[in-house]
Design a protein that fits this description.
alpha/beta; 330 residues; Rossmann fold; 10 helices; single chain; 7-stranded parallel β-sheet; two-stranded parallel sheet
């Protein structure tokens, strides 16, 4: 078991979102005061409403594109977990300007406020999309390719700004390159929903999940509990060599989409045997998608003591129980 952070006052941007709300849960539970800052554009009050009666939790509705709102929320905190962003490769292709404004200008507001307010450590959500067109497997942190989407550009620029702010202003900035995170509260709704909740919703509705491309593209699917662990480790590390670094956050194994779908199917068949007979549909490949992805997590293990607790199968089994209770129409 890893050491969890406690006794801190923490700002979590994007705290009403999928990853952010899971972080709010864990950091409140481990004895911290948490300020959740979110503009509710992709997050939901329902993700955090169970925390709002707790004295250790505060929700502030605000936008990271507004420096004054960020600085006001950050005043008096010990550290920041920056999760707020506009995700999705397709969304960034359709609207690169908004993705840029949120993901780059918003990020700059957060780290500039940290500098001005004396908040020394910011742990921020980076992305595996930074590896771009690099064919090397597994992905190692210091070997990246050219970005394949505006979203990937924004996340790379975050890392560049973090490097500069660490050098110039001696802030401790730690980037976590998330690899295809999944788990409870990840919504299947909307045009830019992630694959696992969309596949799950389709099966529950007895509809054919749509696979983009041939389904043989691979991903390092990462359960939310592994992401929570890495945020605790990055937030609490006392190892001077571990700060001002970026880390892969993943399990360290890759799975094709068609194999993923069968793992989801197997977990759901326990609830509904009819799901065994639902066929798949195949559609065109998506622009900007990486073909294969697999993380080397040895750096996180060596410098932070990371030890992922959930494989894909273990994570799917936990997640499917939540999805079955949450998505099924009674």
């Amino acid at each position: 078991m890893y050491q969890k952070v406690s006794g801190k006052r923490i700002l979590i941007t994007g705290g009403a979102g999928f990853i952010g709300s899971n972080l709010c849960d864990s950091f409140v539970e481990s004895g911290n005061g948490v300020i959740c800052f979110d503009n509710l554009s992709t997050g939901f009050k329902s993700n955090i409403e169970h925390l709002e009666s707790l004295g250790a939790f505060t929700f502030i509705e605000g936008d990271i594109r507004n420096y004054d709102q960020v600085a006001e929320a950050m005043n008096g905190v010990d550290l920041v977990l920056h999760q707020a962003a506009l995700g999705s490769v397709p969304r960034s292709i359709n609207d690169p300007i908004t993705s840029n404004n949120v993901n780059i200008s918003g990020f700059l507001n957060v780290i500039e406020a940290a500098r001005n307010l004396g908040v020394n450590r910011v742990v921020y959500a980076a992305s595996s999309s930074t590896y771009g067109d690099s064919k090397k497997l597994p992905k190692v942190e210091d070997e990246i390719g050219m970005p394949l989407s505006p979203y990937a550009v924004t996340k790379l620029v975050n890392e560049l700004y973090a490097h500069v702010y660490g050098d110039l202003f001696h802030l401790e900035l730690i980037g976590l390159r998330y690899f295809n995170v999944f788990g409870k509260r990840q919504t299947p709704d909307g045009a830019y929903a992630a694959a696992i909740p969309k596949f799950t919703q389709a099966f529950i509705d007895h509809k054919s999940p749509t696979v983009h491309g041939d389904g043989l593209q691979t991903r390092d699917f990462t359960y939310i509990e592994n992401v929570v662990q890495m945020n605790h480790l990055a937030a609490g590390t006392q190892n001077p060599e571990a700060v001002n670094q970026v880390y892969n956050v993943a399990y360290g194994d890759r799975t094709t989409l068609v194999d993923l779908i069968e793992i989801i199917r197997t977990a759901l068949v326990e609830h509904d045997e009819e799901i065994a007979h639902v066929d798949l549909e195949f559609g065109p490949s998506r622009q900007g998608d990486v073909r294969d992805s697999l993380a080397d997590v040895s750096k996180a293990k060596d410098l932070l003591g990371y030890n992922p607790t959930h494989s894909l199968k273990q994570g799917i089994e936990e997640a499917m129980n939540w999805y079955w209770n949450s998505l099924r129409v009674n």
